Amino acid sequence: MRILSRGETILLFLLLHAMCCHAQANGKAYTKFIVYDSLTHETIPFVNIALLSPTDTLFSCTNDSGSIVFRTAPGRYVMRASCVGYRDYSKEVVAGSYAVIPVYMASESKTLTEVTVVGRREHIKMTHEGIVYDMSADKSVQSSTLLSALQQVPLINVDPNNNITVKGSSRYSIYMNGRPYRIAMTNPKEILQGIPASTISKVEVITNIDGRYDADAGDAIINIVTEKHHLTGYTLTAYTGAATQPKGHAGATFTGTKGNVDFSVGYDFHNEGQRNQPIETENSFTDSNRKVFMEGKGDGDWNTHTVRGLLTWTIDSLNSLYLDGHGLFKQTNLSTQWEQSLTMPGQNTIHTRFVNDNSNWTGTAETNAVYRHFLPTNKNKENFSAGYRYTYNPDKRNYQQDYTGAAGSGNERYKRATNGGLNEHTLMADLLLPAGKGHELHLGGKQIFRSGHTKASLYEWLNNEWTAPIHVDAPKEDMDYTQNISSLYASYTGLFGKLSLNASLRWEYASLNMKLNHAQGVTSHDNILIPHLGLSYRISKSTQLSLNYSGGIQRPDITMLNPFTAVYSSYAAGKGNPNLLYPHTQTLGAGLMSFGPKLFMSYDLSFQQLNDAVVPYSYQEQGSTLLTDTYRNIDYIRATGGNIYINYRPVSMLSLTATGNLTYGRMKSSDWDLNQHWWEYNLTFMGNLSIKQWAVGLQYGNYKNRPDAWSKSDAFSLYSCYVSRSFLKNALNVKITVNSPFNKYETLRIRKQYQGFASRQTNYMTARSFGIDVSYTLRSGKPRNIKRDNTLRSTDQETGVR
After folding, report:
1. Residue 321: strand pairing partners
2. Helix, strand, coil tally for the chain in percent (to 5)
3. Which of 75, 220, 582, 612 lies 20 to 30 Å from 66 when distance is taken between CA atoms?
4. What's phi and psi for 150, nearest 5 deg?
5. Residue 153 and residue 212: Cα distance in Å, rounded?
6. Is the pLDDT at 761 greater than 80, yes or no?
């Protein structure tokens, strides 16, 4: 489409004005549009305006005062406005009634540190999968981190301590551009805090998970879609914070655009510790009437290092190449001193001391390379994509124990360690086949190759040196691990008026081979079909009813399979179980979602059965008082529950949120004498008030978690509040957080009852803390152009990047 020159525009306006004056003399009806900048409220001259109806299309542009007058027949029209430097605007209007209609257009290239408050409803779109939030259009978050900006997204809660839940649940997955974002799931707070919201196009909350997504995605998916920038420049964000818990963090992210390449690099350091944090454990053995009481104090730190790099090359309007590299490594330095007491009938109580120094390295390294080709008719939808991902998960654990026995029994020192990790290579491809208006067919496949090795060691301090103990055989807990997973899927989506149908079938074949040097080894093959069927009925533009059924599978990770024995005290240890089966899930759900200018509501009911469920399990070593925690399969877990999410914004500056989950469940195992019923719930209330550069928020929650098998747990409460202030045109942000100021500890009690023994544990979690977070964002940029695919026909170029 040729853009009119200034002279042609003025001439066209004069002709139109003359026509309008003549029509007015004849008593005709008119509609006047005045176009404003949504940020400055100044009028915008020479904006292209089109009025569309089923029978006619009118086209002109505003004058140098930002207004235009149309002579129209009365009726409904679609008004479209476009102008260089502004986002396209579309709105249904009633014209032809002497009306004056204001139009507010959002700038694409004005100063990014300025903020405007716009209606959130315009940013929300409801789909058959869930919702989509247009973050690029929300000017209020452009100087924020992605973690902070997620507070604006319906169904997602970010509490004052930056913990994320989706509809009140932590059973979700994080994706980026439609692919699993594995590293973000290891530490969501650290990863998302390092990503500027200005680099994000939209956030999808997917609650209707079909066969296109991994079978272990959970109850919901947060899909982060990165922005294709229209600026050439850079953004530098630095942030730091500390709390009395104690904990602290600091990091920086540099994001820029050069030509058609967007890139981002960043580093984050996070420290969290505990100082003399108490814990109590009591074990009672019914066969011998013995009792063990342990009182411990923990002291240590968890240090997390995160590095990341991201690059997107927009080859043209239809093709792009995405590359990233991430690394997250968590170092644990923890020391727990146990004062132990063993009571036996008719004997004196035996007092011992056990000091456990724990030094671990865990984490993940990940890299992705994805080629993406978009539909010519919809540049936001991928037509074809192919990619490769590599991940590495280290598992390096070191334990040093110092045991002080009863009087005269001497001291013992041991070092136990496991060192290894898991490598994963993934190839994937996806194809979208449009099958007519409102109908799509997705085809795809994935091949995963996993391999890993862990090596265990045990040393005893003898004669002033570490020596392999002669009274113990060499460690027999080494493991070689290989797994191949092949999957194919087909997914159909169809729109039939107000009804949308989504049906998919995913096939997965997994082969596992573990070589254990103390046993014959483990070999397993799993061949399953995972169905999904979803129906959504659009009651109105903002209200939707949905029904869905889906299958799934949950594969244990390497730490659950690793047979390495970690000793925590004289009476407690833990190990993995390499013989675990893969649990299969069946889920049936129904939901109602509705939103308006002020209120967003979501209601859900669900039933889930998990066959061959994996649960934590403790057993007593033969003839001893040592309890070992491990995992095993049971027959099934059934859970029936409901969820409610309500977000109310009576005015733009005030947000009130309430979430609630209530679930009734049953665990059953005929082999292990288990038939357990339980209730779990969480109730959370949040309020946020923003007045100019100030923001105040508070949260209160009462929680009762799902108990482990053969155990019971108590409910507990947490409350917190924060105050934040923006300076320097929102470039500098300061946030102060207070957690549970009237409680030093939150007590969490867990009771276990097994055949032959009972266990009670009390954890005193640090509740009271005060923290401060500071971030600063520096920006610079100018407009840029993106080359079109020169193979497009002229009619197709209307869908390219403007």
Report:
1. 313, 371
2. 5, 65, 30
3. 75
4. -65, -15
5. 23
6. yes
